[in-house]
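In this supplementary section we document a worked example of the pipeline. Step one takes a protein sequence of length 197 as its only input; no multiple sequence alignment statistics are reported here. Step two produces a three-dimensional model, which step three serialises into structure tokens for compact storage. The input and output of this example are shown verbatim.
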Amino acid sequence: MSLIFKNKISELVSVAVWQITEAEDCLLNSLQLLPEDQATLSSIKLPKVRLQKLACRAALAELLGSNKIGITYTETGQPQMKDYHISFSHTENIVAVALAKIPVGIDIENLTPRILPLYPRFMSEKEIAGCDLNNLKELYYFWCAKEAMYKWFALKNLDFIEDLQVVKNEKKGIVCKKHVLQLADIYVGEQLVMVCY
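The serialised model returned by step three reads:
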């Protein structure tokens, strides 16, 4: 087992972070998946991506306390489960999973300098004015928050600057100027995990 973080961050939301150390067969044999989910995973050509998706299911199994993973998919391709809302994210060999009784979004990112030239593409002038642009943790806070909010909204064509606003000092996100969300940031080693709900 490669579970490196598991916590209930609110009464309705739990999070798990899994570091991938297993082979694909090991993860696949430890899970009981629905045929639809099995077919979706089998259709993924890149072994690394299949492994990440299997690790997400292994982390989800830890949160559920069961290896029976009943994932189906929405019309837009979002994973879903009966009685729960779920969100997955991955970076390199680490995945993050949120399991909730309410809509939820999650993102995980490695804190690297590659973000430094990119912030004007996803931050508003107001967000930029209140941010230390040389601080990787601050820049990734905004990026991860917006990625998690995008997943929470579950519809395409959101503008990261116009439609997704982050109020960092209040740990709030605002989607399309009307949906106010709670943000929770968790640091696991050199990764930032952001959850919105």
